[in-house]
Every structure is written in structure tokens, then in C-alpha cells.
User: Fold this.
Amino acid sequence: YAVFDFGGGTTDFDYGIYRLPNDQEFDEGWDDIIEHFGASGDRFLGGENLLENLAYLVFKNNQNECRDKNISFTKPLDAEAFVGSERLISKTQAAYTNTTLLMSKLRPLWEGGEIIFNGENDVTSLTLLNRDGERVECEIKIPVSALMLWLQERIRDGLRNFFTALKSSFEQERGRLPQEIHILLAGNSSRSR
Assistant:
């Protein structure tokens, strides 16, 4: 078996063999045997981390609006800084609030694959906090196609890591891959589109 536990914060991988007991194990009272021999994971591949990265990409895409209105936001631990980001990225309460507000707006995109705009096709009005803590109306462009492409690629990277660790675990423990492996999906993020 292999478990792909795609949670809110991380994705955990677990590998092993589930089998019926041999005669001695059966005599000892065992009905089933699970031999666990491998675990791994991706500490940034979780629903909330992906949402935080989506918000960061949207802010990056709207950096001129953020500069003009003195809006700051946070940078996820696994994201890369961009030219000029030092003026926009902050660890203030306003920056955390702005990131959280945009994550809330993007949640339907992550969970259901679509987002409802209250403006033009790909523009939404969002009330954010400027660096002085004042509420400011912003017109935020959300590049849905680019975000979906980023999500697909990031999840694809996580799957590559899963299968690499799976191969390594089975080869290290058994010397080869078995004919068949049952992959079990777990975690709330597995429900997302």
C-alpha cells in the first residue's frame, strides 16, 4: 500500500505491506499484518499552504496597485522573492490580514475550481489594509488560468516526490517494486478539484 495524505498543512506519504498472517502469527492471534517500512512527505504541499501561495502570486500580479495604495502582504516560506518585493512584503498585522482576506477570496478556486467575481471577468473589489491600518478599496486582478496552471504544476511536483519515495521505499525494503500497489488518498485536500 501507499498513502498520499494530502492535508491542510502538509502532505504525508506512507508505504508498507498489508497481508494476511502466516501460521505462527495467526496462532498468536493476529488477523491482519501491516508491515510499515517507509514514510516521507512534502511539508509545503497542503491546502492552506497552496492557498497562501496563490494569494502571494495574485499580490505579485497586482504589485502596482499594492504600491500605489501602500498595501503590504506576506511571503510564504516556500515562495521566492521578486524584484521590488522588499517594499511590499511585511510581517505586520496588516500584511497578515491582507493575505488572509485574499486567501478567503481564493478558497472557492482551490476547493471547487472556480471563483465568482464581483467586478469584471477577472477583477474583484477587495477591502484591504494599508501600512497605516486604514481600509482601502482595491481592484485586484486574479489571473485564474495562471493560478490553475501553477496549482497543477505544484501538485505534479508533489506526486513526483510521492512516486520517487514509493520506489525508494519498496526497493530498499523488498529489493523491487511489487506487481500491484494500492494507493490510498487521505486528507481534506484530496477532496479538492
Summary: Strands lie at 2-6, 11-19, 33-42, 123-129, 135-141, 183-186. The first strand starts at residue 2 and ends at 6. Residues 62 and 86 are 15 Å apart (CA to CA).
